[in-house]
Sequence to fold (202 residues):
Amino acid sequence: MATRTVLILGSGPRIGDAVSEKFAADGYKVALVSRKGTNSINEKGYLSLQADFANADPSLLASIFNKVKSEFKVAPSVVVYNAGSTTPPPDPDSALSIPSARVTNDLNVNVVSPFIAAQEAVKHWETLAKGGKKLFIYTGNICNVSVLPTPFLLNGGMGKAASAYWLGVADGAYAAKGYRQVLTHASLPKSCSTRRGTEICY
Fold:
């Protein structure tokens, strides 16, 4: 069987661990990216890379995809974007008291960086053999399906809602090629399982 690789962007101790374990059990090579990454192969045989997705320089994500392809000799066919950021308003009674610099930071993590990651995924999928799953998964939540009057969720909710839109457009635009861009809880492909309360699709 040809090597299959999954790239998990924003890998933490809950969703990140559950997703990596699931894909590894299914025979995928696993690459994890987080702010605490070690830029080495970890004890489980996963490639661990370091990055902060508040940095929306396209070259950052381009280098990550290139490192994964260099290590495993194949581009990732599945990309999971699980990074997220939100900033509580300094005045709890004023949702719009969040400094604009923090709005920009959180939108970089929640919208711009995943958009760039999807661009890289599509570019690298063109190098893979025809057929087989090619999937970009974005971790969504209630904020991209419902507006909650909770100031703490403002920046995160803006990001989830914006990304839900471009994911939906991209999913339709690339459907003929078999490229999928989905939210984990709103637009699931048929092959999904649940582990530790996490919906995993592949």
